[in-house]
């Protein structure tokens, strides 16, 4: 019965959201509805969903105006849509009017901005936004409109764009409590959440509020998965929750994609690739999040598979931002960075808020040695989503290239706050502290990186040894050099670090008078630079002479 109630609510939300021109939310609800598991038998249910915005009760004249406005909206005549609804007073008509007004302002802003990273790109704003925000603020004080979930959603979304994050979060939570099936509200709420503690408080509040409502609680469960995924969490309970949702929605590509993204953030690329393959087999025309799939193929250096994905996406819809990002990734893998940048620009022309395009375009500018353009791209990515650790990390790298290490340090620290279990960030912090002569901080960062490694990274151990040498802590230097030697013996793997460690240990033992130990370190050194090999031979001869005397 609970599942049938959920089915009823999703079915109702598809119709309602579509009628209000919230097309993305309606599409999401439709995919959830079709992806829900089939009933084991025909169930007659009398479940009543909440009657929100019953269009049948509207006066005929207002209903007629809304039907006209809906057609105008679908024809992208946003100004006409708003004008047709100017005399309508129902909450749903007011929402459609203000929503159309805002979108029309966005359209005009795009026309005036003169392209991505153009002269006026960052200066031009949505001229309609302040008027819409002011009217919404006034309307929501009125009893007729104060509890309308869609007006609250629009108000929250606009507040978020104005950087009034705290009030936006409160407003969006209120909207969700009134109507939890509008995924657009969830998307904006997820964007507004900045940290794990805040996320846990919000989720607990919603779980308590919907404690006896299976359908709404299911929406909270889905929201929780996405929130934790975006905060780069990958604990055991998250995988259990994902499995439970996959059993409830076996054919919902969105849930499978979230599972793939969790694996991707956990650096489990093979698992993520397999999940995306499953999504494509189930829905070969699905492009949602396929740009992330292309990132995985890029990291795994699967050029032929990435080429196939780019061709497939281009055939499905060449004017989707995801398609442009996939093609850009393909060119990037071929080291054709200028072409990659061109396609990232196309993605951003189609959707200015395409986070992946801003971040990846920054990477391409770094490859082209254009640090200033890279910095601007990364800044735009952070404006779009402050939780994007790759953009913070990219800013750190860009400023490091410019030898501005204090700036670099700040951005690496921000990246480490967002993703504290990523060893790459801690290695970058260690290098940055080292360049700023903050030796003890550098040591702490490198130790943190080692603790997060699945294996002993000898390059980090060697850097630690050098840092301890700077501090004059001979015992710590010896311990780290010895670790490198033992790891070499155990793995039979030779590197620059193992050669240098052998030379240091041999010299150290010579100073201590342990000539047999010095001999054993130096005698087997047949690799490394010509100078290191010559030094090893000299130590071997000296140690042998001392032992023979």
Give structural notes.
Among the domains are: 93 residues, Serine Threonine Protein Phosphatase 5, Tetratricopeptide repeat, CATH 1.25.40.10; 94 residues, Alpha Horseshoe (Serine Threonine Protein Phosphatase 5, Tetratricopeptide repeat), CATH 1.25.40. By secondary structure, it is mostly helical. It contains 29 helices and no strands. The longest helix has 22 residues. The chain is elongated. Helices cover 73% and strands 0% of the residues. α11 runs parallel beside α13 and α17 runs antiparallel to α18. It comes from Cyberlindnera jadinii (strain ATCC 18201 / CBS 1600 / BCRC 20928 / JCM 3617 / NBRC 0987 / NRRL Y-1542). Pfam families: ANAPC8, TPR_11, TPR_8.
List keywords for this structure.
Serine Threonine Protein Phosphatase 5, Tetratricopeptide repeat, 549 residues, TPR_rpt, single chain, mainly alpha
């Amino acid at each position: 019965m609970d599942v049938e109630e959920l089915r009823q609510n999703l079915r109702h939300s598809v119709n309602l959201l579509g009628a209000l021109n919230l097309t993305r939310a309606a599409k999401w609800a439709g995919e959830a509805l079709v992806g829900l598991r089939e009933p084991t038998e025909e169930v007659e249910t009398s479940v009543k969903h909440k009657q929100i915005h019953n269009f049948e009760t509207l006066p005929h004249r207002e209903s007629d105006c809304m039907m006209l406005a809906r057609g105008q909206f679908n024809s992208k005549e946003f100004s006409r849509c708003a004008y047709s609804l100017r005399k309508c007073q129902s909450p749903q008509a007011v929402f459609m009017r203000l929503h159309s007004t805002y979108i029309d302002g966005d359209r005009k802003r795009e026309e005036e901005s003169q392209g991505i990273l153009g002269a006026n790109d960052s200066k031009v704003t949505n001229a309609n936004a302040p008027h819409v925000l002011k009217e919404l603020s006034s309307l929501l004080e009125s009893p007729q409109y104060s509890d309308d979930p869609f007006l609250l959603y629009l108000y929250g979304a606009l507040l978020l764009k104005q950087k009034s994050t705290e009030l936006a979060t409160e407003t969006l939570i209120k909207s969700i409590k009134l109507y939890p099936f509008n995924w657009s509200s969830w998307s904006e709420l997820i964007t507004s959440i900045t940290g794990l503690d805040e996320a846990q408080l919000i989720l607990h509040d919603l779980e308590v509020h919907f404690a006896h409502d299976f359908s709404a609680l299911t929406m909270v469960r889905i929201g929780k998965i996405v929130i934790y995924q975006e905060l780069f969490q990958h604990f055991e309970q998250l995988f259990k929750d994902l499995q439970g949702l996959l059993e409830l929605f076996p054919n919902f590509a969105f849930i499978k994609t979230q599972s793939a993204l969790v694996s991707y953030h956990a650096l489990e690329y093979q698992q993520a690739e397999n999940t995306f393959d499953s999504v494509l087999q189930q829905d070969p025309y699905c492009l949602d999040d396929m740009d992330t799939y292309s990132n995985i193929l890029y990291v795994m250096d699967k050029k032929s598979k990435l080429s196939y994905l780019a061709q497939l996406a281009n055939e499905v819809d060449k004017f989707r931002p995801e398609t442009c990002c996939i093609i850009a990734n393909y060119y990037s893998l071929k080291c054709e960075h200028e072409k990659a940048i061109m396609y990232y620009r196309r993605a951003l022309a189609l959707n200015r808020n395409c986070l992946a395009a801003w971040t990846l375009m920054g990477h391409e500018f770094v490859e082209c040695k254009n640090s200033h353009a890279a910095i601007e791209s990364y800044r735009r990515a952070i404006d779009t989503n402050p939780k994007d650790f790759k953009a913070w990390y990219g800013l750190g790298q860009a400023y490091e290239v410019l030898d501005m290490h204090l700036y670099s340090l700040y951005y690496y620290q921000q990246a480490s706050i967002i993703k504290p279990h990523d060893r790459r960030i801690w290695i970058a912090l260690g290098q940055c502290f080292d360049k700023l002569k903050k030796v003890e901080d550098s040591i702490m960062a490198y130790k943190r990186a080692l603790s997060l490694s699945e294996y002993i990274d000898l390059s980090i151990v060697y850097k630690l040894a050098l840092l301890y040498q700077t501090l004059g802590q001979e015992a710590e230097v010896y311990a780290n050099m010895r670790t490198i030697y033992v790891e070499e013996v155990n793995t039979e793997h030779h590197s620059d670090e193992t050669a240098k460690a052998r030379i240091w240990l041999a010299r150290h033992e010579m100073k201590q008078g342990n000539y047999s130990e010095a001999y054993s370190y130096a005698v087997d050194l047949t690799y490394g630079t010509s100078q290191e090999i010559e030094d090893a031979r000299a130590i071997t001869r000296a140690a042998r002479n001392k032992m023979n005397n």
